Amino acid sequence: MTRIAIVYFTESNVTEKIAEAIVSGIKQEDGITVILHRIAGQEIIEGRFENPELFQQLKSCDAILFGSPTYMGSVSAQFKAFADASSEYWQEQEWADKISAGFTTGTGLNGDQSSTLQYMSTLASQHGMLWVNIASSYGVENNKLNRLGCQLGVVSQATKGSVHEVDLATAKHLGRRVAKLTLRLNE
Ligand SMILES: Cc1cc2nc3c(=O)[nH]c(=O)nc-3n(C[C@H](O)[C@H](O)[C@H](O)COP(=O)(O)O)c2cc1C
């Protein structure tokens, strides 16, 4: 069974809605188990993310997706705590050759969300992972994906918690793309 994990932080649930849309895209393909992990404040003890069981699960996954709201042009502190804890598995490159991708949200139409994705792709590279972009052009008439024009991953923009349908469609598209590529890699 192919296993795909999504690790994300969300405070007001917009990032969670994006994560759920990604899951719906993954589920368009058969034979995949999805592990959805929402980073919780209780997992961060004196500033350090602690959840060895989660890292045990992630080791057995074929793909790991990262999600965080954009805070001050980067990932949230809660997501960064998880990323920093993953350093324990960096030396042995435990995540090498796993597929990875990312998603983020912000209130700005151009609120530096792409910086967040750049950080996530660097994190994936530090672990030797294979970063998957969204493979969707933008600014094309009738293109119902990638309305904000970032190809590195899913960028969404939301005000008052309401997520744009094109952002959800883009997330679903990325989920299916990751699922297909992960299955192909496992052939
Ligand atoms: C501390 C903080 C910093 C933020 N910085 C940014 C930012 O740099 N760019 C942006 O577009 N939105 C920024 N926002 C807005 C959040 O990214 C936005 O509300 C997001 O939808 C929250 O995601 P969530 O619902 O998953 O928690 C910031 C919000 C907070 C609380």
Automatic annotation (TrEMBL):
Source organism per UniProt: Thalassotalea castellviae
PANTHER family hit by this protein: FLAVODOXIN-RELATED PROTEIN WRBA-RELATED, FLAVOPROTEIN-LIKE PROTEIN YCP4-RELATED
Protein name (record): Flavodoxin family protein
Database matches in InterPro entries: Flavodoxin/NO_synth (IPR008254), Flavoprotein-like_sf (IPR029039), FMN_Rdtase-like_dom (IPR005025)
Domain Flavodoxin-like: 4-179
One Pfam family cited in the UniProt record for this chain: FMN_red
Keyword terms: Flavoprotein, FMN
